[in-house]
Amino acid sequence: MAKSVKTIGVLTSGGDAPGMNAAIRGVVRTAIHQGLKVKGIMRGYAGLLQEEIVDMDSTSVSDIIHRGGTILYTARCMEFTTPEGQEQGAEICRKHGIDGIVVIGGDGSFRGAGKLAALGINTIGVPGTIDLDIACTDYTIGFDTAVNTAMEAIDKIRDTSTSHERCSIIEVMGRNAGYIALWCGIANGAEDILLPERYDGDEQALINRVIENRKRGKKHNIIINAEGIGHSASMARRIEAATGIETRATILGHMQRGGTPTCKDRVYASIMGSKAALLLAEGKSNRLVAYKNGDYVDFDIQEALNMKKDIQEEQYEIAKMLVR
Ligand code: ADP
Ligand code: F6P
Questions:
Q1: Cβ < 6 Å from ligand 1: which residues?
Q2: pTM of the prediction?
Q3: Where do the annotations place ATP binding (predicted)?
Q4: Relative to the CA of 106, which ligand 2 atom is closest?
């Protein structure tokens, strides 16, 4: 049932993602346009429980659309996973007159958002993660910037790998998901792409392909490995021992989470943040903003969390065809 809100809060939670600032700006400016007051909650649910809450106006979000990271900071908070922590969070919202919240984060953050909604605080989630691993949406804030950052880094590694006629394993982020690996695998013309969703652990087959590629005259051999598989350094040692080809491992790590957001991340994040504030202004709660089949839509949080996602089979099959 719709419940009208006067003051909303906004927080970022979980891993940061480039474009989160654009989303915050979208929330704040839209809410003000709708006649709502806005409060920024610092450091995710941790800051909520610590009552790190600041008033925000239109100028609080000036000069941030082009900046990576999140001006509200982010954190992980075990305490908020407990019923007591969630009750306390809802109570603090009431104390500060916050009757609606926009949570920008990933699946974990949305579980928390669902709990707040059940405790009577109108809550809307906005998908912010470089991993693209939120089932209800084809787009998550930060993925586009992260794949572009990783792609540029991999191009550079490829140059040196070719010069030294080496094999390179490059590990990209993606806790349980291979989206960054798959996109970079295609964009960087990698020789092999290892995805947690598909890798069968057959390292001998991988080694055989490295040997075959060298016989065919390939000067480098780029293997993109997803963080969800990991073990890039030990894999490199085993490939070198088995093939006699010098092999280096590079873990790109957190550089993929930073940097100035791409145009796409700025625009989509702005629209999603704005849509979240509009949903709150309409009295909606327990919804997740998503981008599906070319439209901005919203889903019930629990329904969205129950959805399953897998990498697109067609994209994976084409990637495999193109690596040979
Ligand atoms: P992400 O949102 O990127 O998936 P996490 O999984 O680390 O990141 O979750 C971010 C935060 O969301 C956690 O630190 C915790 O405070 C909160 N959270 C995660 N899972 C739950 C849960 N089941 N119930 C309530 N809050 C949760
Ligand atoms: O959720 C995004 C992500 O970048 C994952 O790909 C990665 O596993 C994780 O965050 C790392 O998080 P942190 O080092 O901040 O704990």
A1: 13-15, 45, 76-77, 80-81, 105-109, 111-112, 115, 129
A2: 0.96
A3: 15, 76-77, 106-109
A4: 1
| CB-ligand 2 contact for 320 (6 Å cutoff) | no
CA distance 262 to 67: 10
Q: What is the pLDDT along the chain (324 residues), one digit of tens a residue?
A: 566 899 999 999 999 999 999 999 999 999 999 999 999 999 999 999 999 999 999 999 999 999 999 999 999 999 999 999 999 999 999 999 999 999 999 999 999 999 999 999 999 999 999 999 999 999 999 999 999 999 999 999 999 999 999 999 999 999 899 999 999 999 999 999 999 999 999 999 999 999 999 999 999 999 999 999 999 999 999 999 999 999 999 999 999 999 999 999 999 999 999 999 999 999 999 999 999 999 999 999 999 999 999 999 999 999 989 987
Choose among 100, 120, 108: nearest CA to 46. Answer: 108
Closest CA to 28 of 50, 10, 49: 10
Q: Can you state the percent helix, strand and coil of the chain, rounding each to 5?
A: 45, 20, 35
Distance 131 CA to ligand 2 centre (A): 8
* Ligand 1 mutation pick, 11, 42, 73, 76, max ligand atoms within 8 A of CB: 76
Atom 8 (ligand 1) nearest CA = 14
Mark whether 200 is an active-site residue: no
CA distance 87 to 323: 52
* SS3 call for 123: strand
Task: Answer whether 181's CB lies under 8 Å from 187's CB.
Answer: no
Nearest atom in ligand 1 to 128's CA: 3
